[in-house]
Amino acid sequence: MASDILSHPNRQKKIHILTLDTVLADDIYERIHNDPRMEGYRLISPQPVVAEIHKAARDTVSSKLLILDVRRETLPLLQRAYTKVVGYNRRDLNRFVFMILIGDGPAFQAGRTLDCFVLYLVAFRVDYCPMAFFYDPLLHYEPDELAYQGIDNPFVIDGKLPKSVAPCFTGRRHPTTEAVRQFFRAPGESEEIKAERSGILSNLYRKRLSKQFPKNKDQMDALFSKEGARLSSEKLHLYPLFFEDWVYDLMEKKTATN
User: Could you write out the DSSP letters of every residue in 153-204?
Assistant: First the structure.
């Protein structure tokens, strides 16, 4: 137990990506790996099974950034592992190590306000002290859209887009979540094309979220900015907009040992 409260100031330029979703893990990994600003960063993405993430908890004390998937459906499976991660890094949080959370948000119905995120974000602030929380609409599945295997087996999604955002992307084809992520990540394309696709995604999400939260149109500009939307004492960001910028800024953030 004593190791839980030790400080580990001499951290490397390492990033741990903890999730049971291989598609999300690949998206995070590739976005960081292909960003020329972050050449030389070491990315650690354990196999997407609960036991492997448990094993990785102790190794997180050598990383400067931890990226955790905290969606509602898998958080109960990973809660013990995440508690270990926080325990090992507790003394160094927001000093020598930083945390980004990516999640699916609270359960909500169209017509609500963004304030439905407040208590949800406050709970994560208490438990994890993240530097940023990113809401990812591509994670916002309803319970009947998901399928699970055993606790030590990979988290399984059948590849379909969540019903809540499928209207954004359907045309003559019905793309999978993996295809959507890859298209907007634009691997191998120029920076101009990547920026163009990011703009397309922003427009699609803006239209959808404006319908879901019609009373918050005045906050949409903030939600689609790097700074995020302030909701009471919390801030909400939208994945993957400005995600790489946040990763780079936190990895280059000066600490007391620099």
Answer: S--B--SPPPTTTHHHH-SSS---HHHHHHHHH-TT--HHHHHHHHHHHHHH
